[in-house]
Amino acid sequence: MISKENFSALIQDLDKDGVTLVAVSKIQPISSIQKLYDLGHRHFGENYVQELLEKQDKLPADIHWHFIGHLQSNKVKYIAPFVHLIHGVDSEKLLKEINKQAIKANRTLEVLLQVFIADEETKFGLDEEELNQIMENTHLYPHVKIRGLMGMASFSDDEEKVRSEFRQLKKLFDRYEQFDILSTGMSGDYKLAIEEGSTMVRIGSLVFGRRTL
Ligand SMILES: *Cc1c(COP(=O)(O)O)cnc(C)c1O
After folding, report:
1. What angle do CA 146, 152, 155 make, to 5 degrees?
2. How far lies 18's CA from each of 161, 170, 181, 182, 194, in Å?
3. pLDDT at position 120
4. Of residues 197 and 124, which shows the higher confidence score?
5. What is the 76 CA–ligand 1 centroid distance (Å)?
6. Mean of pLDDT values over 5-18
7. Sign of the C-alpha dihedral, residues 148, 90, 86, 189?
8. Euclidean distance between the first and the last CA atom of the chain, given in angstroms as a whole number
């Protein structure tokens, strides 16, 4: 796990660029999350609903939980009462369900739309046309606030390729004046992501150490 000094230095660096760190704590024990919490950190990201529920139950209530995984419509109801930001919204069906659960939870839910930018088949996300369509229909989801976009670049050593994928997403992001969060960048590519306009990075292994499961 990252030292206290290195963590502070990372946060300071990100702050300088106005970038928020989401510490991705999937598969990490409660104790590791508590350590960063004790240093004052509040933004944590989880990929699995069940794991998030267990952790949320055991950790302080003022943590801002980000859901960064692929969310199934039938699981929205479990996280709707407390989730801070849902990063991976990739269908109108899911958006509709989030709106419904937001009403039940008596709150507005904040989300990011996930756009497909990599050339890998395994990654989820909307294409440009689907994004446009959703943005034309936001009136259908009055209890959802779309804060911006999320994307994952190709897992590649080719800097120019990764950079151009981030740049492509930033261009789409800039089309919508109401957007204020661009969630791009992980442990391996967050510096490039910030150079290409990221405002929120999702970093796991660099702060918690390698995931062993
Ligand atoms: C796991 C994960 C991360 C963090 O990955 P690291 O390489 O460990 O920093 C970021 N975003 C998503 C969507 C993830 O699933």
Report:
1. 180
2. 25, 16, 11, 12, 10
3. 73
4. 197
5. 20
6. 97
7. negative
8. 15
Counting Cα atoms < 13 Å in the Cβ hemisphere of 182 gives: 22
DSSP 96: H
Q: How many Å lie between the centroid of ligand 1 and the Cα of residue 16?
A: 22
CA of 116 to the centre of ligand 1 (A): 15
Is 70 exceeded by the pLDDT of residue 93? yes
| Paired residues of 144 in beta bridges | 109
- Residue 206 — very low, low, confident or very high, per pLDDT cuts 50/70/90? very high
Segment 89-100 shows an average pLDDT of 97
Alpha carbon nearest to ligand 1 atom 7, residue: 187
d(CA 77, CA 102): 9
**Is 36:3 a contact under the CB 8 Å cutoff?**
no
Please tell me the distance between residue 104's alpha carbon and the centre of ligand 1 in angstroms.
Answer: 30
Angle at which helix 92-104 crosses helix 128-136, to 10 degrees, equals: 40
For atom 12 of ligand 1, the residue with the nearest CA is 68
pLDDT interval class at 97 (50, 70, 90) = very high
**Alpha-carbon span 117 to 152, nearest angstrom:** 7
Name the band, by pLDDT with cuts 50, 70 and 90, for residue 121.
Answer: low
Looking at residue 10, what is its pLDDT?
97
Nearest atom (ligand 1) to Cα of 187: 9
